[in-house]
Design brief:
Blueprint lengths: L3 H9 L4 E5 L3 H9 L4 E4 L3 H4 L11 H13 L5 E5 L2 H6 L1 H15 L3 E5 L4 H10 L4 E6 L5 H4 L9 H17 L3 E5 L3 H10 L4 E4 L7 E4 L1 H5 L16 H17 L18
Parallel strand pairs: 1-2, 1-8, 2-3, 3-4, 4-5, 5-6, 6-7, 7-8
Helix pairs in contact: 2-4, 4-6, 6-7, 7-9, 9-10
The structure holds 3-methyl-2-oxobutanoic acid and sodium ion.
């Protein structure tokens, strides 16, 4: 398994880090087989798997349940689990307890926490306690209610300066990696240059140390909105739709099961 040290080395060597989200055993094993360096059990699971309209409803228990499935589906791949909204932002104590629970009960190798400000103290305390923390800055979907929508961050001089300060602060607090979401390419490049920890971009342009996309977006498995920054590599929904429809037709038309699918008593030829 690659470690946080390996990821730093990859940054130094300009070797792009591949992160893919995963939510269950089959998605995780396919991502591992494809050669991902890191898996992220993202709270995007609220939308792409659980059918919520944002990540806000996702609980710590949901994250533990799905991370356990991811771990069962993989051999040895560094797995990061999101600390969901309510746990991360109610209080420092909540965040520490949630992170401890995730680490102990799910087998995650690191936790990811959105934001800066009061979160800096949480990152500090977790890393001092031996819990690797991935930070998440730029667009932070958990606070979309306060921001008033999903918007590109760090566009103005002022917000760019704030983002650079926040990025430096999470590194100083001990974060082992930074996920940077929806910021202009040039801003992301400055963050990448400034930090010694790897910066993994999503909608952050071409100059970050790695890239992450949501599994369902890569394969076209999510029926909802697909953001501009996504590259969809295949369109799996019509494939699934056609297969399920064909099954339905076969049953209706009594074409399934066929001879090949039925069991025979002992002594009779298959
Ligand atoms: O929840 C998630 O999938 C994420 C990624 C989009 C970075 O946080
Ligand atoms: Na997330």
């Amino acid at each position: 398994m690659k470690t946080t040290q390996d990821f730093r080395k990859m940054k130094e060597d300009n070797d792009p880090i591949v992160m893919i989200t995963a939510y269950d055993a089959p998605s995780a094993s396919l991502a591992e087989e494809a050669g991902a360096d890191v898996l992220l059990v993202g709270d995007s699971l609220g939308m792409v798997v659980l059918g919520y309209d944002s990540t806000v409803q996702v609980t710590v228990e949901d994250m533990i349940y799905h991370t356990k499935a991811v771990k069962r589906g993989t051999d040895s791949i560094f797995t990061v689990t999101d600390i969901p909204f309510m746990a991360a932002h109610i209080s420092t104590e909540h965040a520490l307890k949630a992170s401890a629970d995730v680490m102990q009960k799910s087998g995650a190798d690191a936790v990811k926490i959105e934001g800066s400000g009061p979160v800096i103290d949480i990152i500090n305390r977790l890393t001092e306690g031996g819990v690797p923390v991935v930070s998440h800055l730029g667009l932070t979907p958990q606070t979309v209610g306060v921001e008033g929508g999903y918007r590109v961050q760090g566009k103005t001089e002022e917000s760019k300066k704030k983002l650079l300060e926040d990025a430096a602060a999470v590194e100083k607090a001990g974060a082992c990696m930074l996920v940077l979401e929806c910021v202009p390419e040039e801003t992301a490049r400055l963050v990448q240059e400034e930090l010694t920890i790897p910066v993994i971009g999503i909608g952050a342009g071409r100059f970050t140390d790695g890239q992450v996309l949501v599994y369902h977006d890569i394969i076209g498995y999510y029926g909802g909105h697909t953001p501009k920054f996504v590259k969809q590599y295949t369109d799996i929904r019509p494939v699934i739709h056609d297969a399920l429809s064909a099954f339905k037709e076969d049953v209706k038309e009594k074409r399934f099961p066929e001879e090949a699918h039925v069991f025979k008593p002992y002594g009779e030829k298959k």
